[in-house]
């Protein structure tokens, strides 16, 4: 299970510092469950709704909805409401109404940072379950939360480790899982584990953003272990505010590697395990056909299960494109 203690302590400090303005109190598990039954009749018009004369849903900061279109061309709508206990007007969390392209509404309640760890565990379990049905639900939710919450609150929410450190294998192996996708010559793609000596792969000059090809000399393979992996979710977003809400075109990339693999970010060279939320990495944007900076939206560290990991040795260049993300050669 996730480790919440440090996150909650730090975040609680943030809320205590702002107690006069946000007046939060811990959300109970019973209240979390009850809130799942709350509905808004008209998301366009209803901005302040009471339930049982005990709770209130108040449109978050009077914000307009987000309309997010992903690379699949499907448009989703996200509306945020503060959940407030009427007695004392105490904030309990943020209610999210997510409407897909078919009109189906998914609800989730983001607890405030004073909530008990078990409530947070239930929240993460619930959004994971929705994500299994509604592809990229967590990605789109995370984008909106990153825009609306303070940076520190969002970073605490998404920057924690998702693993038991004692069960993961760390070491000097600088590699990727075999299921990462390598950009090949002539626009082709290949799973890393299937790359062969003599294959031609794409390398990009970080300064000029010009792509060329180099030949693979060797595919290095490391024995199966339960390796620790760092996972980055990177996004490129075009956000236009209209009279109806935020129209967002969202393109995303996901990359996994052992925590010590070298990366080049706009903020400098780092190991992937040291890359931070909000930093920029060069990626290939299929919508524009160009190599452009994508921003790290989500980062976590987890165990990948017992598996081999791989790395390419090439006869030139300094980078590879892995899952559309520029990574440094070892």
TrEMBL record:
It comes from the Bacteria. InterPro entries: Hedgehog_Hint, Hint_dom_N, Hint_dom_sf, Intein_N. SMART domains: HintN (SM00306). One of its GO terms (biological process) is intein-mediated protein splicing. Signal peptide: none annotated. Residues 173-285 form the Hint domain. This is Hint domain-containing protein. It comes from Mucilaginibacter pallidiroseus.
């Amino acid at each position: 299970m996730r480790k919440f203690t440090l996150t909650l302590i730090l975040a609680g400090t943030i809320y205590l510092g702002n107690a006069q303005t946000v007046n939060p109190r811990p959300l109970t598990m019973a209240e979390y469950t009850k809130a799942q039954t709350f509905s808004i009749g008209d998301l366009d018009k209803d901005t302040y709704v009471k339930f049982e004369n005990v709770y209130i849903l108040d449109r978050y900061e009077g914000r307009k909805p987000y309309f997010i279109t992903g690379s699949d061309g499907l448009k989703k709508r996200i509306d945020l409401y503060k959940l407030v206990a009427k007695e004392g007007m105490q904030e309990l969390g943020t209610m999210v109404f997510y409407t897909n392209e078919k009109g189906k509404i998914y609800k989730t309640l983001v607890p405030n940072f004073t909530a008990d760890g078990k409530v947070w565990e239930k929240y993460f379990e619930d959004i994971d379950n929705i994500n299994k049905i509604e592809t990229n639900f967590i990605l789109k939710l995370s984008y909106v939360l990153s825009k609306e919450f303070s940076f520190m609150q969002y970073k605490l929410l998404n920057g924690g480790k998702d693993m038991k450190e004692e069960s993961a294998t760390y070491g000097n192996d600088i590699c990727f899982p075999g299921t990462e996708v390598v950009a090949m010559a002539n626009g082709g793609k290949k799973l890393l584990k299937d790359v062969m000596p003599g294959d031609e792969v794409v390398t990009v000059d970080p300064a000029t953003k010009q792509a060329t090809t180099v030949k693979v000399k060797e595919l290095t393979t490391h024995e199966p272990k339960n390796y620790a992996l760092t996972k980055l979710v990177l996004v490129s977003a075009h956000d236009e505010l209209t009279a109806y809400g935020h129209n967002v075109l969202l393109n995303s990339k996901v990359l996994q590697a052992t925590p010590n693999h070298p990366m080049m970010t706009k903020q400098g060279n780092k190991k992937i395990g040291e890359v931070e939320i909000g930093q920029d990495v060069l990626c290939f944007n299929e919508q524009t056909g160009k190599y452009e900076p994508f921003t790290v939206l989500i980062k976590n560290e987890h165990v990948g299960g017992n598996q081999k990991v791989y790395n390419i040795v090439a006869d030139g260049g300094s980078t590879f494109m892995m899952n559309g993300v520029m990574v440094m050669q070892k």
